[in-house]
Specification:
With about 425 residues, this protein is an alpha+beta fold. The chain is built from 11 helices and 21 strands. The strands form 5 sheets. It has a 6-stranded mixed β-sheet with strand order 1-3-2-4-5-6, with helices on both faces.
């Protein structure tokens, strides 16, 4: 199906549903996956889901799938299609695969922003509403064999396979990132096969749709991603010659299976945090992804369930801080452990030995300090952790630095300095 920028051709929509429930005896370590394929002819030609199912069966795994893939369909069309809506609302899917019309994601930025991204987001929202624990999986499709001749005159990058393919890869990556989704990198698999094995043709005679080789390559990518297994384990070769099947499996293994974490990077639940310290008070900044609840253990017997807690340590030492980030609905979690060093005297490592003296303390107006390393910048914090001064404009006399604090209100503050290697030290002082 060919689309132009200005209008879509009249479509004869043939909507149908194929639902297969397969209960087979499989190995003890076999995995069962429920997947819904939403797309168009790139999904329907050669019945891509069925090929994935047969690959899975040959390794002791089971794919239970349904699909809705009318020819020429776009994401926008699927958002109002009764069959698509019904299947999404039925829920209980592990994966929902979304495949846009073959040309649209390669159009100019403004066209994609209007015609693609909003409807990708709408479908993803429908996925999450019906199956809160499902992974939305974008089907990264390929550039046409010789580019898009129909639209080349409007947008030169479409004049070649490489131009069209690079745009498709970019836009599907953006969709995955924007919707916290995963990717089946079919275009990457095709690209490597084209580059390394040019005699292995993946295209049907129209230079757009996949032939049997192309569909098998797509299926191997999907098997790798959805089951997390090496496609070389599969004994099923579809209708592909043994030699070509071995090549395709090897490429899919190298591109999809060997880089699973990359294709799931936007979807994965990841626990992470950074810290900022003022004396013995440590502020924790949560960098976790796709989590809903957080459990902190500060390493001194205290804990918190706040997103971004602050904790004051009562003794000096090195503490193992643990964050468990979880999705309470889906029952998944990730854990990260980091070390925090604290001294109750107000000096934090690393680089605590850099500061030799600070005077006068208490101070009226000019605070002076000496550092064994050149100071590049400094910060001043209140006792509750508020940053009130951040500057690299320092007065230097020999190795002695001075800072005008006359504008500060009376009270206790923390001076944090950074050397050229960005190591920091922190000192407490009192302002009259």
């Amino acid at each position: 199906m060919t689309l132009t920028f200005n209008s879509f051709c009249a479509l004869r929509i043939i909507s149908y549903l194929i639902f297969a429930l397969l209960f087979s005896t499989h190995a003890v370590d076999g995995k069962t996956v429920r997947a819904l394929f939403i797309g168009n002819s790139y999904t329907d030609v050669n019945n891509l889901p069925e090929i994935v199912k047969q690959i899975a069966l040959s390794t002791g795994d089971t794919l239970i799938y349904s699909k809705n893939a009318p020819g020429g369909y776009t994401f926008q069309m699927h958002t109002t299609n009764a069959t698509t809506i019904s299947l999404l609302q039925a829920g209980n899917w592990d994966y929902v695969i979304l495949q846009e019309q073959s040309q649209l994601p390669s159009f100019p930025d403004n066209d994609v922003a209007i015609q693609v991204y909003p409807y990708a987001a709408a479908l993803d929202s429908m996925v999450k509403a019906g199956s809160p624990c499902a992974t939305t999986l974008f089907y990264m499709t390929w550039g046409r064999q010789n580019g898009d001749a129909t639209n080349c005159q409007f947008f030169p990058p479409l004049c070649t396979y490489f131009g069209m393919d690079s745009l498709l890869q970019l836009r599907y990556t953006i969709m995955a990132q924007d919707n916290h989704a995963a990717i089946s990198p079919v275009a990457k698999v095709w690209f490597k096969i084209r580059a390394d094995f040019p005699a292995l043709n993946l295209y049907a005679s129209d230079g757009s749709h996949p032939n049997n080789n192309g569909s098998f390559a797509a299926a191997c990518s999907f098997y790798s991603v959805m089951f997390g297994k090496n496609p070389q384990l599969a004994t099923y070769n579809y209708t592909v010659t043994a030699t070509d099947a071995a090549t395709i499996k090897t490429v899919a293994k190298e591109v999809a299976f060997d880089s699973l974490s990359f294709w799931f990077q936007y979807d994965a639940l990841v626990a992470d945090f950074n810290v900022s310290s003022v004396a013995n008070t440590v502020s924790f900044f949560n960098g976790s992804q796709n989590a809903t609840t957080y459990n902190w253990s500060f390493g001194d017997g205290n804990s918190s369930t706040q997103i971004n807690p602050a904790h004051t340590y009562l003794s000096s030492g090195t503490f193992q801080v643990t964050l468990i980030a979880s999705d309470s609905v889906c029952g998944i979690a990730d854990t990260v452990v980091k070390t925090v060093s604290v001294t109750t005297s107000g000096l934090l490592s690393p680089g605590s030995s850099n500061v030799l003296n600070v005077s006068p303390n208490p101070v009226f107006d000019i605070l002076t300090f000496i550092s064994s390393k050149k100071v590049s910048s400094l910060q001043v914090f209140t006792t509750d952790g508020r940053l009130i001064l951040n500057t690299n404009k320092l007065n230097l006399s020999d190795e002695e630095y001075s800072l005008n604090v006359a504008m500060l209100s009376s009270g206790i503050y923390f001076l944090k300095i950074y050397d050229d290697e960005l190591e920091s030290s922190c000192i407490k002082f009192t302002k009259y």
